[in-house]
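User: Predict Alpha-macroglobulin receptor-binding domain-containing protein's structure from this.
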Amino acid sequence: CLLGKKLQLNYKHNDGSYSTFGERGSMIGNTWLTAFVLKSFTQAAAFIFLDQKHIIDAQIFLTLRQLEDGSFQKIGSLLNNALKGGVDDRISLTAYITIALLEMPLPLTHVLVRNALHFLETEAQAEEIHVYTRALMAYAFTLAGNEEKRQEMLDALQKLAVKEDGSIHWERPEKQKKTLDLPYYHPQAPSAEVEMTSYVLLAYVAKELSPSQEELIIATAIVRCLPTDSQGMLGRYSNSTPCTNLDTVVALQALCQYRTITYSKDGVGAKVTLSSGDVSLAKFHVDSTNSLLLQCQDLPSVPGDYTAEVTGCIFMQTSLRYNIQPPQEESPFKLIVQTVPQNCTGPKAHQTFDIAFNISYTGQRVVSNMAIVQIKMLSGYIPVKSTVKLVHTFFGHLLINPIIYLGLQVSNLSQSYSFTVELETPVQGLKPALVKVYDYYETDDFAISEYIAPCSTGGV
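Assistant:
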């Protein structure tokens, strides 16, 4: 916590606001991020020492950005242009900031909260409200104890819900689903869908009075959807990158709140029997003593028919991992990768060469959201770390062998990067390695290229 506090203060501005990079360059403080930091600092103050000046400074900044109608002025930018959740308009931004203020918590009588709630109550009467905004407003009214407006939002959200196989979630109407005709392929929910679904779950389980039985049934159906959608939400693992995102934060908060109201210490536990035909493969027992322990069983053959008999309530999933190259269609990124030298010229090219790549953004926005470049190493090769450190991007780099991750923001102007790799172990029959750039928030938007060592033939 202390380290996190020190790191966060690096991004503080003199006016009390916060931005992605602090006061480096020309970036100004961001309203949304300042509210997020204010809430986080206030809640962390119960566990660590925190100078109250930082909290007061951020609160003053937000006070000066509240307009006469109670809404908040959008200032600064974040690197998710599509959704941060979806707070690109005044209504959703005000709903988010109101949630942050109430979670601090500030009292309902505080001028910031009172004026913001008045604005939201007025806007709640509109007929056309985006589903993400409704989710935020539902949770804001839940925290405020406004049962009438809360129920109005939840009733409207139920009409927009996607109900499949006993689960419930919400999707943006403008987001078209992309499907691939591949075996065992199940598309993952973008971060926005996970986030808005989590806000709705919070609206059901975070009310002051205990949820009704009907509300618990709906909440349970939402919980069924969340772990499947995020496929690793506890580390933003839907992108297979070691990063975190707002959907992770909100989903964890919602799941913890659900766990709080449904947990029973006196439960006898759950039993699971896994079998294939007449053959028993495994028996699991889950109770309060081992509920955090991950229990696994390998399936002997795939495809195959398996039966799981369950007594009690548990979370169980199957995982199938395989490699296949998905087709690339209408990518908003342009990616060109080449080696330097391109041909096997001289003995040095057998031992070391540079990987150079150019990236540009060709999508509909002025700049991309935060983009991740994933560079996989050729078999037998390792990056020269000193050259990787020289690759300057907005978000730096992370090396997790055999993959390098770079975080950056891309415009329509081509950006060029390069670093050096060297041969560690000679490999015969060397195959090309992939370089992939993708939108961190919309993982369906990606571009892929490949490269091969200049002297890849005639390996030892």
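Residues 213-230 form the longest helix (18 residues).
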